Amino acid sequence: MKFISSTRCRLPRVFSLVLLGFGTVFGTLRAQNQPPQDQVHPGQSPQERPLYQDASQPVDKRVEDLLGRMTVEEKISQVHADSKFTTPAIPRLGVPVRWLTDGPQGVREDVGPYNWRSAGHTDDFATYMPSLCALASTWNLDLATAYGNVLGRESRKRGKDIILGPIADIVRTPLCGRVYEYFGEDPFLNARMTVNYIQGVQTNDVAACVKHFAGNNQENGRGIINMDMDERTLREIYLPPFEAAVKEAGVWTVMGAYTKFRGEHCAYSDYLINKILKGEWGFPGLVMSDWSGTYSTREAVLGGLDLEMGTLITGTERERPYEDYYLARQFLEGIRSGEYPVSLLDDKVRRSLRVMFATHVFDTRKPGSLNTPANQATAQRIAEESMVLLKNEGATLPLDASQIKSLAVIGENAVRHHATGLFGAGVKTMHEITPLEGIVQRVGTNMNITYSVGYSQRGGSSMIERAVTAAKQADVAIVIAGLNHSRYLDDEGWDRTNLSLPYGQDELIQQVVKANPRTIVVLIAGPAIEMDPWLAQVPAVLQAWYPGMEGGHALARVLFGDVNPSGKLTCTYPKQLMDSPAHALDTYPGTNGTLFYKEGLLVGYRWFDAKNIEPEFPFGFGLSYTTFEYSNLKLVAGQDTNGPVVTAECDIANTGQRAGAEVAELYIHQDNPSLPRPLKELKGFTKVFLKPGEKEMVSIPLDRRAFAFYDPARKGWVAEAGDFKIQIGASSRDIRLQDTFHLSQTTVEK
Ligand code: BGC
């Protein structure tokens, strides 16, 4: 059975704004883009100033003081939206309108307050960053911090209080329409990226929102699907990035997923939200629903939802008037009738206020910056470091501009823009350098460049013929192929239907490489693509992701060797769809509204290792224009509590002719565990930049948790005494060094 996709309304909403009958104060919506003014009460002396306005007081005291001054109606006004992306002001108390914004790869353009159409503003441009799949492929945590910083600075300058990113969901199937917005298939790498991204955002007095908690792993049927998995899988694969977001990054807001988990809607699943997130992890911030992801007052109130956003009238695409939101009038009536204790409402508002105080909404805030050269340079740097060289036979790349007289650039993606037109991930950008523009600007007038579309979403005849002619006449052909953000490709709300390139691109690439054996394929796409139809013939393939507004420049610099590629894959690329676990076990997209994650822990490379399946390209793989040698592994024992249990040290040397960067990946393997474990689990990595001939010692610390598995019987993380193989390699299938570490004591951490 196939599910209908997306609960999201693209249609203009028929809506009449009715002021709440029960007295909620709707503040006038602040002019879009204007940062909120610091709230001061005119004429008040410092002595009369209420405690909550005193920045020197501890946050919890300020929260309690303000909460104590709010009427029940004012409190209710803070737990549901009053426009697409706001909650209302309480002018009497100086509480400003709170602005939320998408999204993970740049501050979204403003939409109309009550519909999804562009607000038509002229000052809502933002830096369009490479997609999150690109960021993760850098394996560079400093860049994740820098990325978050750009988003934080730009949100602030645009007057936003909460930015709806990052996405910490795991890539379970390569078909998922939002793979490009995800950090990949591995929980450890995902968690590291998530933490640094959030820290970068939140240093700017803006709250990050980690989403979609937990298990939005496909778009197909996301609004109705009920997913389930065994407890270990939940704890070891799908929760760690969220857990790290809460415990390490101190994220201030969490968005519940559209999906259901064990029969409860994720945004108010008692188990996920009350027991795990707020209970076990002690999350002090606020939980919001995804847009229209709330379906009942009682369950939402009791299940831990703190803020309801974007609710639609069930069965239609029309949005409810805001006073009809589940956490609006019905909640108030329930409070008044005694159905719900006020303490439940207070808890929700307290969380909301905590976020406001933590982000200094009532105090002096950081000013932010928007569309600056520095922010754009960060976008370019990340794009450059993210590109993954998948194949490079006969040193086809880098191209030597002084030796090439003519170049055929082929493909719609050479000229196509990808920033706008998305759901939550679209960005209105000042410019977007396309691959063709980047290449032309890089080589100047020294080379004869012909462009030929070759394939197009709109179709058309003789495109291939013309591309073949261009390729034949050129020294080198570059096909800029891949996907785009159309429905059933890299798009929210729908999954892909297969792994193939669309629009006849396989045929195009086959013909072009036949005409010119010096053909390079560049892939603009988020997820794995099936390459079998042409991979053996094409000498060089570069995965460029969606590289953001400076992407064309970044790409040209990689192609012509100004930058040595150092990205590595964050997902396994299967040779065919049926090789990947969810499909091999026929557990996608679910049956009769339910989906059990049968593969359990064996997600991504864990499955390919366990079943001994040869992937097209393994997790962690990526070539360079230089070569690296690994040597001298040492395991240095550390203390046993509150620090590394052991640190793995080894030397990495650049043995080639060019400067470059290498990502060293550390996997552990437990010998004879008491519960079955994957053969390999990523538990550390580091990226090192080396000049030709240079050698550096790298160290990767491992704490207790790195050795632990989750034991459902003991409800805790068990690091078992015994032998562990510590493997360091250039990919999950290219282990260069290995040694055994003996953990002497078993511990259980709750
Ligand atoms: C998406 C969220 C996004 C929200 C607001 C939803 O459809 O799933 O990721 O933040 O819309 O645009």
Report on the architecture of this protein:
There is one protein chain. With 750 residues, the protein is an alpha/beta fold. The chain is 25% helix and 19% strand. It has 19 helices and 26 strands. The strands form 6 sheets. Strands 1-2-3-4-6-9 form a 6-stranded mixed sheet. Strands 10-15-14-13-11-12 form a 6-stranded mixed sheet, with helices on both faces. Strands 8-7-5-16 form a 4-stranded mixed sheet, with no helix packed on it. Helix 13 (435-443) links the parallel strand 11 (406-410) and strand 12. Helix 4 (141-157) runs antiparallel to helix 12, helix 5 (187-202) runs parallel beside helix 7 (240-247) and helix 13 crosses helix 16 (551-559). Beta-D-glucopyranose is lined by residues 8, 102-103, 164, 211, 290-291, 423-424.
Which key features would you list for this structure?
globular; alpha/beta; single chain; 750 residues; 26 strands; 6-stranded mixed beta sheet; binds beta-D-glucopyranose
Topology:
Layout lengths: L58 H11 L2 H6 L8 E2 L10 E4 L30 H7 L2 H17 L4 E2 L23 H16 L4 E7 L12 E3 L2 H8 L1 H8 L5 E4 L3 E2 L2 E2 L4 H11 L5 E3 L8 H7 L25 H8 L5 H17 L14 H14 L1 E5 L13 E5 L24 H9 L4 E5 L10 H11 L2 E7 L22 H11 L3 E6 L15 E4 L7 H9 L21 H4 L9 E3 L8 H6 L17 E10 L8 E9 L5 E11 L10 E10 L4 E8 L1 H4 L1 E3 L4 E4 L2 E10 L2 E10 L3 E3 L1
Parallel strand pairs: 2-3, 3-4, 4-6, 5-7, 5-16, 6-9, 11-12, 11-13, 13-14, 14-15
Antiparallel strand pairs: 1-2, 7-8, 10-15, 17-18, 18-21, 19-20, 19-24, 22-23, 23-26, 24-25
The structure holds beta-D-glucopyranose.
Beta-D-glucopyranose binds next to loops.
